[in-house]
Specification:
heterodimer, A: three-stranded antiparallel β-sheet, 4 helices, 18% helix, B: Aspartate Aminotransferase, domain 2, seven-stranded mixed β-sheet, 12 helices, globular
């Protein structure tokens, strides 16, 4: 069974956000990477781009599917994980660690209330949410 | 298409299976007014020898480029087609196959496409070339759309008036959907007016498009055009006559981001207008935006070298609303002609053809002009 750290917030599109002060680190969940299978390509926005909550910010491509990535929180992209260009498999190997995708300067912290907690996300998955 | 005949006995058996007494009975559900009630107005069957003579006489009424110099074309040129090309491409393995991309069945075809891509990348000085598009004009249209997508939706194209007018028309049509605007830059002294080009390019520009050598045969300053494009974070798209690249510096070395070309000059007969070969090459960091498909080399589980379809515009299959290209295939046989042509000529041969094509032919050159381009190109 995949794990869902309690300090993260989750979306129903299977992204996570780790809020660190006024910034949030973003990636996809263990469930998402498992469903996708081997990730072969991740397309991320440029640093400085603006992302909006639950709007696509990029694309993840695996050997069997291509999916949009949805921003858990709105804000400006401060960092992207450039290592994913060479090693997209990090998304599979360490989805909450080295497989991170973005760091966003959060523009509307109250948006976090719309996100799921770890137990809520697990419940959502248990009900077959995908 | 294979012709499959059937004997009267077979017809009878088939009629029995479907429960019809005769072919007339089989056709009886068709309303009489939808059926032709008289025999087709076609001449009676002829013996093969008669028919061949008749077709030969009809064909002889066409003027052809073996007998006449041709000033038509505007992008399609009369180059000599070496005889091995037709022999090699006529092999059944190449000639009859349709979309032969299953790696377990088509190593030969995939390998020729891989060789083609390698030759085109080397010739244009780019990192990667796709498995081909339909012709030079639509390749340029695709390049315009790709530049639009790669620059986060910039809406303006700045195009030299030295680009083939037919290509410009095709680009016009291509960019109608995304509503891109085209700004044309006039020529000064035969080549693109760089001052006007610089003035026209802005942060709204997706691509600067030039042709090299341009439609009138002048060699454009691609480096200058690329510098102007890059200063505005736009792409530099170059349409080339690939036959000239045995002589000229490859546009990839001059800053081009996308190079497109009509490959007809590489051993593909004029055939009164097609099929042609669209060459499309770009840089590694734009590879995901590239239309068409890409064959790659890999190793199988026994560590043997093999070839597979590595990339294709997947959006056509699974994310259609995100598609930036509607090109789903390539012209493998024409690409094969070009591959055989270049393999036959080699580096020196291509240089020689380039020299013949760029020089003014002497007055008595008719008998030896078969490998030289038949339009004046004052480069």
């Amino acid at each position: 069974m995949a794990n869902y750290p309690a300090d993260l917030k989750y979306t129903k599109e299977h992204e996570w956000a780790r809020v660190e002060g006024n910034r949030a680190r973003v990636g996809i969940t263990a469930y998402a990477q498992e469903q996708l299978g081997d990730v072969v390509f991740v397309e991320l926005p440029k640093v400085g781009a603006k992302v909006s909550q639950m709007k696509p910010f990029g694309v993840v491509e695996s050997v069997k599917a291509v999916s949009d990535l949805f921003a858990p929180l709105s804000g400006e992209v401060m960092e992207i994980n450039a290592e994913l260009v060479k090693k997209p498999e990090l998304v599979n190997q360490d989805p909450y660690g080295k497989g991170w995708m973005l760091v966003v300067a959060v523009s509307s912290p109250e948006e976090a209330k719309a996100l799921l907690t770890a137990p809520q996300y697990e419940e959502y998955l248990a009900k077959g949410g995908h | 298409m294979r012709y499959i005949s059937n004997t009267p006995a077979q017809q009878k058996e088939m009629l029995r299976v479907v429960g019809a007494t005769s072919i007339e009975d089989l056709l009886s559900p068709i309303p009489p007014k939808a059926r032709l009630s008289r025999p087709l107005n076609v001449p009676a069957a002829r013996a093969e020898a008669d028919l061949v003579r008749h077709m030969g006489q009809l064909a002889a009424r066409n003027a052809n480029t073996d007998d006449f110099v041709c000033f038509l074309g505007g992008g399609a040129y009369d180059h000599y087609v070496p005889s091995p090309i037709n022999h090699l491409i006529s092999r059944g393995e190449f000639f009859t196959a349709y979309t032969p991309y299953q790696p377990e069945a088509s190593q030969g075809t995939l390998r020729t496409i891989y060789e083609y891509q390698t030759m085109m990348a080397e010739l244009t000085g780019m990192d990667v070339a796709n498995a081909s598009l339909y012709d030079g004009a639509s390749s340029l249209g695709e390049a315009a759309l790709m530049a639009h997508a790669a620059t986060d939706g910039r809406q303006q194209l700045v195009m030299s008036h030295g680009v083939n007018p037919f290509y410009r028309q095709v680009v016009d049509t291509y960019v109608e959907g995304p509503r891109l605007r085209i700004k044309e830059i006039p020529l000064g002294d035969g080549a693109t007016d760089l001052g006007a080009l610089k003035k026209a390019v802005s942060e709204k520009t997706a691509a600067v498009i030039v042709q090299y050598p341009n439609f009138f045969g002048c060699v454009e300053d691609v480096q200058a055009a690329a510098d102007i494009a890059h200063a505005a974070k736009a792409l530099c798209v170059v349409a080339v006559d690939p036959v000239s690249l045995g002589l000229l510096s490859p546009p990839g070395a001059l800053g081009a981001d996308i190079v497109v070309a009509e490959g007809q000059g590489f051993g593909i007969p004029l055939s009164y207008g097609g099929p042609n070969l669209g060459i499309f090459a770009t840089k590694t960091d734009l590879i995901r935006r590239m239309p068409g498909r890409l064959v790659g080399a890999t190793v199988d589980r026994d560590d043997k070298r093999g070839f597979v379809l590595t990339l294709q515009t997947r959006e056509q299959h699974i994310r259609r609303e995100k598609a930036t290209s509607n090109i789903c295939t390539n012209v493998a046989l024409c690409a094969l002609m070009a591959t055989v042509y270049l393999a036959l000529l080699g580096r020196e041969g291509l240089r020689k053809v380039g020299e013949l094509a760029s020089a003014s032919p002497p007055p008595s050159s008719k008998s030896s002009s078969s490998s030289s381009r038949n339009h004046p190109s004052g480069s």
